[in-house]
Amino acid sequence: MKNIFLITKREYLTQVKKKSFVILTLLAPILMIGFAALIAFMFKANESSSTFNVVDKSGLFVGNLKNTDQIKYVFVPAVNEKSLVATLKEMNGIEGLLIIPELKGQNYDEVQKESKLLINKKIGFDTKMKVSNDLSKIIRKEKIKTLGISEDQMRNLDKSFELNTQNVVDNKSSDSDLSFGVKSILAMIMMYAVFMFIIIYGVRVMRSVLEEKNNRVVEIIISSVKPFELMMGKILGVTFVALTQFSIWITMSVIGALFLNTGFSALKDQIPGGEKTTEMVEKFDLQQTAAEVSHILLDMNVPLIIGVFVIFFLLGYIFYSSMYAAIGSAVDNETETQQFTLFAIIPLMLGMYGSFTIMKNPEGPLGFWLSMVPFTSPVAMIARIPFGVPIWQIALSVSLLLISTLLMIYIAGKVYRVGILMYGNKATAKELWKWIRS
After folding, report:
1. Residue 97 burial (CB < 10 Å; 0-12/13-18/19+)?
2. Other Cβ atoms closer than 10 A to 12
3. How far apart are CA 251 and CA 257, in angstroms?
4. Are 352 and 188 in contact (CB under 8 A)?
5. For each successive 10 residues of the chain (438 residues), what is the average pLDDT?
6. For strand 166-167 and strand 172-173, is the pairing parallel, antiparallel, or unpaired?
7. Per-position DSSP letters for 377-406, written without gaps between them
8. In this predicted structure, what is the pLDDT of residue 400?
9. Under 8 Å between Cβ of 102 and 57
10. Contact 407, 401 (CB under 8 A)
11. pLDDT of residue 268
12. Measured in Å, how far apart are the chain's first and last C-alpha atoms?
């Protein structure tokens, strides 16, 4: 244990003292914020206002079409229609001519069908949709008046049917749409965190082993410590490096969230989707929704979720890092690692993408088996846990993953012991099997 501790300390200090680690740790959040700001600026810079002349022969839209920062409507007499159409190509400052036909009887559908927008330049899809939605909103109101239905009655008719369900086993109500959404987002965040952690820092373990092997430094180290102690020291050292980096990023994110305003009001203008989306966003109460989300999160079994996340996070990382360490010891260069790293990446990807089905059916058979198989359980069980998992399934999955991790460490140790001192001999699957059996 003393040698493992010393190697862990050496690996940790070596990694964190590198200029690349310091620069990446400090600049990564800033670069992400800067990238987000650049995207927001690009959206803003690409915005433009459009002005349309409107010939309204129906009389329905005069005074009802409202100007905005993006679109301005200028009503002109119907007698000028032909001259406006003829000179539209040469007009400056006018992007188009909106022609609305006469209303015959109460045939609003005919008005909608015969209305047309003549343009002298390309306009954005959002601009076209905004004009269409403005016209549709007014037509809808006129139809409601014709039917003799008030706005309140119409809103009442538009209400969706909300079905209340209750589980007779645990006597709990079923999740609301918001609750299910919060749990799904939480599951995805934790699942992606584990997936990226294992891939990024597992590869770092492999490269560290490969670097020392190529520099022949390992020959000196092996004379003082056992290969197994060296392997475990590297895995644990990189683990602490990753935790340090994540801790700094989380701290910077919290501080940034306290001082930066994300601009929800600006975001509303960028959301596509038409009239219904716009009305939904306008009615959106950020403070109330935040309170509901907080209540949903606190209503979960937070200690269990955190405990399961930490256990599967660490066991999954050690499981795959042992595999990566064995790969690094068995090859002589990074090009040769490609034939072996697929064995680590493919199971993780199957677990991650297969876990998306868990969002639809958390208690389905696929979700169960993905959370039991050790190769996929580090991400699949974490995806299931916000929705509630029976304790016996968690215990069984942890037991299987723990046993498999110890077995993987044992196998990786045998490969590492032989491969770390092998040079110029390209390892094959057959050769690796011989090392494991020896």
Report:
1. buried
2. 19
3. 10
4. no
5. 80 81 78 78 74 84 81 85 83 83 82 84 81 85 78 72 60 60 81 85 81 68 71 82 79 65 45 46 55 68 84 88 83 72 83 78 80 89 85 92 90 78 67 74
6. antiparallel
7. HHHHHHHHGGG---HHHHHHHHHHHHHHHH
8. 94
9. yes
10. no
11. 45
12. 25
The phi-psi region of residue 141 (left if phi > 0; otherwise alpha if psi is between -120 and 50; otherwise beta) is: alpha
pLDDT of residue 403: 94
Phi–psi pair at 18, nearest 5 degrees: -70, 140
Sign of the torsion formed by the C-alpha atoms of 420, 422, 425 and 429: negative
Query: Residue holding tokens 């092998």?
Result: 422
* Residue 96 per-residue DSSP state: E
CA distance 344 to 346: 6
- Of 428, 401, 400, nearest in space to 415 by CA: 428
Q: Which amino acid is at 333?
A: N
- The answer to whether the beta carbons of residues 380 and 371 sit under 8 Å apart is yes
Two tokens, residue 170:
């645990």
For the stretch 307-356, pLDDT in tens is 888 888 888 888 998 888 888 777 777 766 777 777 788 888 888 888 78
What CA–CA distances, in Å, run from 271 to 265, 297, 350, 419?
A: 11, 26, 32, 55
pLDDT tens digits, one per residue of 131-157: 888 888 888 888 887 777 777 777 777
Distances (CA, A) of 59 to 87, 228, 429: 24, 85, 80
Residues in contact with 387: Cβ distance below 8 Å, sequence separation at least 6, in sequence order: 183, 187, 358, 362
- Give the CA dihedral 407, 410, 414, 420, nearest 10 degrees: 110
Contact 19, 92 (CB under 8 A): no
Tell me the two tokens of residue 178: 């918001």
Show Cβ contacts of residue 47 under 8 Å, excluding neighbours closer than 6 positions: 70
Give the three-class secondary structure for 124: coil
* pTM listed for this prediction: 0.64
